[in-house]
Amino acid sequence: MRHWQSTLALPVHELQYEQLATSIESESRKLIEFIDLPWDPACLDFHLSTRGVQTPSRWQVRQPVHSRSLGRWRNYATTFESVSEHYDKLGMLHT
User: Per the domain annotation, does 94 fall within a domain?
Assistant: First the structure.
């Protein structure tokens, strides 16, 4: 994120999925406030929408935010060790 914050001449809102999955309402409120829109409780029910979704992963769009996948990245940590230094330089890793 540091890379984009320093590169773009725009405000950047950082949202980590781990935080969203464990605190969906508070993180959603922060995001809605950041984009200067009024809060609507329906934001929490996005997965109940019946509007059409044109994407191969549309079944995922219909799922609520969940924490089942949190930490799964650790299964691949050794695979990505060779590039982790580059991610860190871009501000994409958190300690």
Answer: no
How large is the average pLDDT for residues 30-43?
Answer: 96
- pTM of the predicted model, to two decimals? 0.68
Query: For 13, phi and psi rounded to 5 degrees?
Result: -105, 120
User: 17: closest CA among 73, 76, 59, 57?
Assistant: 73
- Of 43, 50, 16, 8, residue with least CA distance to 28: 43
Tell me, yes or no, whether 47 lies in a domain: yes
Q: Alpha-carbon distance 21 to 29, whole Å? A: 13
Q: Are 28 and 44 in contact (CB under 8 A)?
A: yes
Residue 74 structural domain: 2-89
Locate 72 and state its tokens.
Answer: 């799964």
Tally the domains of the chain.
1
